[in-house]
Amino acid sequence: MPSDTLPPAPSPARADLYGAIAGSAATLQAQYLGSRGQRQQAHARGQLAVLRRSAGFTPEQHPLALQSVLDSLHPLLEDGELGTGDTASRSERAAFDAMCMFALHMQSATRPMHVSGRSFGSAMGMLRIRNDSGSLKPRFDALLAARNERARLTHARSLVTLLRGEQIGLDYGRFAQDLRTLASSARGGVLLRWGRDFAVMPRRERERDQTSEPTSITATTTP
């Protein structure tokens, strides 16, 4: 072998939809919040601004935005998740919508908005506890009752801005998986789970508060 022959470049890490979105969101938010230094923070701010401007479009309407989303993923999507024709695959579409909403969610954030393990429905239930003006449940119900994918996404983006206002995060890897399922005939299961989490979360929080209250001890005196 000639001495000037370079070794092959290592293949970039790849993951399924959950791993790609969860890993990318965690990295971007760490950079944005400043834990990786000022240079990385500036990079994340610029990348999130590009993604934020793409919210509300479809990949076909804004091909450059899809390119930006795919380029922002580290790890990358596995080959089986990528499209091969002139339309975006379901995984690409879900990645596009999830990352654009994550960028909306992170705007002016001072804490992580990607929170592993917390579903969209649970996040909305937490919002209901913290700041329920009476209009939240009708808005959440409108999302569950929406008759098409674009209407659901419009409602979801609106609700994400409310979560941003209270700095309540959610698991974006799981959210991306749910968005992909919502585009299929199995959407009813996701909507059922979101509705359950929305209803149950306030009750769980109340029970947690009650069990964490200190037990009052009444002092007695000997006659």
TrEMBL record:
Residue ranges, annotated region (Disordered): 203-223
Pfam families named in the record: CRISPR_Cse2 (PF09485)
Top-rank lineage group of the source organism: Bacteria
Stretches with biased composition (Low complexity): 212-223
InterPro entries for this protein: CRISPR-assoc_prot_Cse2, Cse2_sf
Name the record gives this protein: Type I-E CRISPR-associated protein Cse2/CasB
Natural source organism: Brachybacterium huguangmaarense
